[in-house]
Design brief:
With 258 residues, the protein is mostly helical. The chain is built from 8 helices and no strands. The protein starts with a helix and ends with a helix.
Length: 258
């Protein structure tokens, strides 16, 4: 849902920066790779140590590369299947690093197995939510639903509340509980989104099969009509041959009688 409103705004804001990179000869793929590397480093270096504020700052600086590279590709007229594939693939890597960082914290210094499990569920469900849409579209279905919590919502909720929770180390009391709240929100929202997409694919699949089944009788009837039309000339020709044969027999009989 946030994609609809936020992407257009940040695209306009980041367009001058994208233009600057183009003038310096930087390619969109380079921005994609560097952005992902920055997110992974910020998540897997700072989060396992409980440094949620600084980790979020580093990740936020790099996460906007997802908008910058696309902006650059459009300005250069280089939008391609490869660019889309690379961008989507590395998005999954970045998401896995963020929630993997949370899981490592709760498995170690955070010492909370339940929240470690929730973090892992957020990581896995985020990957599956993206897969369901991609897989549905690959088999020819529109998958006409976005769902409650898409990638943008997952990142905004998790990063915002994680960054605020990190202020606990600066003496802000009670704020550390915002991260567990964020993880539970993302987990429940991702589960709902997954169900929404699975139900949508099931419905669209049934509709597509029903339409295909309804089209088959018409195709059979059309084939029968074509066969009948093709056989009609041959039957007419056979009748003409039979008539000629009878006439010749009559002529031969007349000659014999003479």
């Amino acid at each position: 849902m946030l994609n609809k409103y936020a992407r257009a705004f940040f695209t306009r804001v980041l367009t001058p920066f994208a233009t600057f990179l183009i003038r310096r000869g930087v390619s969109p793929d380079t921005v994609t790779l560097l952005g992902t590397a920055g997110v992974v480093a910020g998540a897997l270096v700072f989060y396992p140590m409980g440094e949620f504020f600084w980790g979020t700052v580093v990740i936020t600086l790099f996460v906007f590369s997802d908008l910058v590279d696309g902006n650059m590709a459009r300005q250069l007229g280089r939008s391609s299947r490869w660019g889309a594939f690379l961008d989507s693939t590395l998005d999954r890597v970045a998401d896995g690093a963020i929630f993997g960082g949370f899981a490592l914290w709760y498995a170690g210094g955070g010492d909370d197995i339940a929240l470690c499990a929730v973090s892992i569920f957020c990581l896995a469900s985020g990957q599956v939510v993206s897969y369901t849409k991609a897989r549905g579209e690959s088999i020819g279905l529109p998958v006409a639903v976005n769902g409650l919590v898409e990638r943008a919502e997952r990142l905004v909720i998790a990063l915002t509340l994680a960054g605020l929770a990190g202020l606990h180390k600066f003496g802000v009391p009670g704020i550390q509980y915002l991260l567990p709240i964020a993880l539970w929100i993302v987990a429940v929202g991702s589960l709902i989104t997954l169900i929404q997409r699975v139900v949508t694919v099931r419905r669209e699949s049934a509709e597509a099969e029903a339409q295909a089944g309804a089209a088959e009788p018409g195709a059979v009837a059309s084939g029968a009509a074509e066969s009948a039309a093709e056989s009609a000339p041959s039957e007419s020709a056979a009748a003409e041959e039979k008539q000629k044969s009878q006439e010749q027999s009559q002529e031969q009989g007349s000659e014999a009688a003479k």
